[in-house]
Design goal:
Blueprint (H helix, E strand, L loop, with lengths): L2 H7 L5 H24 L16 H12 L9 H12 L11 H7 L7 H24 L3 H8 L1 H9 L3 H16 L3 H10 L10 H7 L3 H22 L1 H9 L1 H9 L11 H7 L4 H24 L5 H15 L12 H14 L5 H22 L3 H19 L25
Keywords: Cell membrane, Membrane, Transferase, Transmembrane, Transmembrane helix
Protein name: DUF2029 domain-containing protein
Family: Belongs to the glycosyltransferase 87 family.
């Protein structure tokens, strides 16, 4: 068999190759994180009292809220002042998340900065692993969550990509087995990052999942009410008042374009004027919305393909998606792996998944060094997997090579008609 046939059928993606590679990757990440924290000025202050990455804003916000001041994280000058001890003057990280996210972060406010960082990353990776294990039907979901390069990207930034993956994965795993109230609850938990969930209501309506839609709406209102009860209404007022500064972050170049993975940022990196960049973003967003509605409305489309269209589409639909948000791709990858165990993989499916992860992993570095926007390309490559199946039929290849996964309950197939 030629190398092209191996690549097409995915015979290289066997347990005895993938499993050791995943374990070696995980060990490498651990050593790399230790080095980055011990090396002065990399990810922490010299005395290891606080991180110097994005997580600093999470920790300082949580600490402020625990001390009885949940408003300061939304007052730019005051919040920047709180970070000066760690970052010095002239640098600070904003906190653009609604008070619901501040509610999630409260336990971190009683820990030291570095301890809070590791607690947050470890807990969110474990939570993601639990949701992926539910999808896969095996404990390999924990290894998948920890070993993907996208996880390391998120960890270096100290961001919440794995938390988003945990909630999204749990919601879709519950939906796959028709636990609709539970699915709605986990969807509601994503309210802290509405740009990633903007397509979910349309998918639910198109698929006729009205109970989930209702459950998510009620749970979201309850979460908002709980945040008001715990943090007070002033936090929400302050959050609303900073919206003008938040909306100008991208337009004024306060965040480097190479960190984004959106169409508008990619066009900007290539020199397109603002009107053209956002015009292209609008066209792509509407196209992706139509694609999500179409796939979720078709009972003949496999649920794993619906998940992939929704997830990759969500990253393409918003202008405010960054490289650490790629972490949510582990959810459709898990669904693909579960299907691979049941019925084999379609031609090129494994290769396209590998290419997506590769492009997503190097997108920030390549964007910074060469101004080449690989982020949107990674999403488009990933979309090719479900679209190829949908257009060409099931397209299941004859590859039945050993897989490292089990598979989600067969009850999920009832969603496909």
């Amino acid at each position: 068999m030629s190398w092209i046939q191996h690549a097409r059928r995915g015979t290289w993606a066997t347990r005895d190759r993938v499993l050791p590679a995943a374990i070696m990757a995980l060990v490498t990440y651990c050593f790399l994180l230790v080095f980055l924290f011990l090396a002065p000025g990399k990810l922490s202050t010299p005395d290891l009292s606080a991180t110097t990455n994005d997580f600093l804003s999470f920790w300082v916000a949580a600490k402020s809220a625990v001390q009885g001041d949940p408003v300061t994280p939304y007052v730019i000058k005051d919040f920047a002042f709180l970070q000066q001890e760690s970052l010095g003057e002239g640098r600070f990280y904003s906190f653009f998340y609604p008070p619901v996210f501040l509610l999630y972060l409260l336990p971190l406010g009683v820990l030291s900065g570095v301890a809070a960082y590791f607690a947050f990353q470890i807990v969110t990776i474990i939570a993601t692993g639990a949701s992926l294990s539910a999808i896969l039907g095996s404990r390999y979901g924990f290894l998948l969550a920890a070993a993907l390069p996208l996880t390391m990207t998120n960890a270096v930034y100290g961001q919440n990509g794995m938390l988003s993956a945990a909630f999204l994965g749990a919601a879709l795993a519950a939906l796959a087995v028709r636990r609709e109230i539970l699915a709605g609850f986990f969807i509601a938990l994503l309210i802290y990052k509405p740009q990633l969930g903007i397509l979910i209501p349309f998918a639910l309506i198109a698929g006729g999942h009205w109970r989930i839609f209702a459950s998510a709406s009620v749970c979201a209102l309850l979460l908002i009410g709980l945040s008001v009860l715990v943090l007070g209404g002033d936090a929400w007022l302050a959050f609303w008042e900073q919206r003008e500064f938040a909306s100008g972050v991208v337009a004024e170049g306060l965040v480097d374009l190479h960190k984004f993975i959106s169409i508008s940022a990619g066009a900007g990196m290539l020199g397109a004027p603002t009107w053209l960049a956002y015009g292209l973003q609008a066209i792509v967003s509407l196209s992706v919305l139509a694609l999500v509605v179409w796939t979720w409305n078709r009972r003949s489309v496999d649920f794993a393909d619906k998940v992939a269209v929704l997830t990759a589409g969500s990253l393409l639909a918003t202008p405010f998606a960054l490289c650490y948000d790629f972490a949510i791709l582990c959810v459709p990858i898990a669904f693909f792996m579960a299907r691979r165990k049941r019925q084999g993989a379609a031609d090129w499916e494994d290769g396209l998944m590998f290419l997506t992860v590769l492009l997503a992993t190097i997108s920030r570095v390549v964007g910074e060094m060469y101004s080449i926007p690989l982020g949107p390309l990674a999403c488009l490559v990933f979309l090719a997997i479900p679209l190829r199946r949908i257009v060409l039929g099931s397209g299941v290849g004859k590859n039945q090579s050993p897989s490292i996964t089990g598979g989600i309950s067969s009850r999920s197939r009832s969603l496909n008609g």
